[in-house]
Design brief:
With about 240 residues, the protein is an alpha/beta fold. The chain has four helices and 14 strands.
Length: about 240
């Protein structure tokens, strides 16, 4: 047969996906990469409203937050708020003050850390329990108010690492145990520390800050009062440390 007019077979194009899946190692890498990428993309572009509604979804007994709705925004341009428990400054969400609401459930730090201007977070006088959330992921915070809940367990030593603007920490009247986390001592701007009414043990760290308010009363601490705290009122230590 003459070669004239004969057509050479077209090269077979192997789909890229097929060539990838021929290697188990490559497959695993690609799948992990795709999953991470999808998660990253999904987290981009969320509005404050969407973030807070996701946070609300992690709570129980949240009917008190009924005005948190996708039909409104948390803040108005004149610093007013449309949503209960939301503090607005210059039209931006500045803080959450969710106190005395009977709330419980999970504090979803992973979603809350997406709020770029969140400075204060208060859930005092509620029914939250379990270990303390990983607030060190929320590096913009200046105050944390957790008093009068049912949080428990040992707080990791590095629990406050990186929250360099933190000024006020209220952990009183919970069920925390173990040592007072050493990362509290390293906070350069700390002014208020309330730890009373827990089950902290061990020696009290030496805080050299110019604390405006301080209490570790009614814990199970031991040893002398550190030099840096010697000027504090003795009532700050009642119940466990010698005067």
């Amino acid at each position: 047969m003459s070669a004239m007019g004969a057509h050479a077979p077209s090269p077979v194009r192997v789909p890229l996906l097929y060539s990838i899946v021929t290697s188990n190692h490559k497959t695993s890498f690609v799948l992990v990469f795709l999953l991470v990428s999808l998660h990253f993309v999904a987290s981009l572009g969320l509005t404050d409203s969407e973030i807070l509604l996701k946070f609300k979804g992690s709570l129980t007994n949240a009917s008190v937050l009924s005005d948190w709705s996708d039909k409104t925004t948390p803040c108005t341009k004149n610093n007013a708020t449309n949503w209960v428990g939301v503090i607005c400054v210059e039209g931006s969400l500045w803080g959450l003050q969710l106190e005395n609401m009977g709330l419980a459930g999970k504090i979803d730090v992973e979603i809350l850390k997406s709020l770029p201007d969140l400075k204060t977070f208060s859930i005092m006088n509620n029914n939250f329990d379990g270990p303390m959330p990983e607030f060190k992921k929320m590096v913009t915070l200046r105050s944390i108010y957790l008093s009068n809940n049912h949080f428990s367990g040992v707080i990791p030593p590095d629990a406050f690492d990186g929250i360099l603007k933190l000024k006020k920490v209220y952990l009183a009247q919970n069920e925390f145990t173990g040592a007072i986390p050493s990362s509290l001592v390293a906070l350069p701007k700390l002014l208020v520390l309330r730890l009373e009414g827990n089950q902290f043990t061990g020696k009290l760290p030496d805080f050299t800050h110019n604390l405006q308010s301080f209490s570790v009363s009614n814990n199970a601490l031991e040893g002398p009062i550190p030099t840096g705290l010697s000027k504090m009122d003795l009532s700050s230590f009642s119940g466990e440390l010698p005067s």
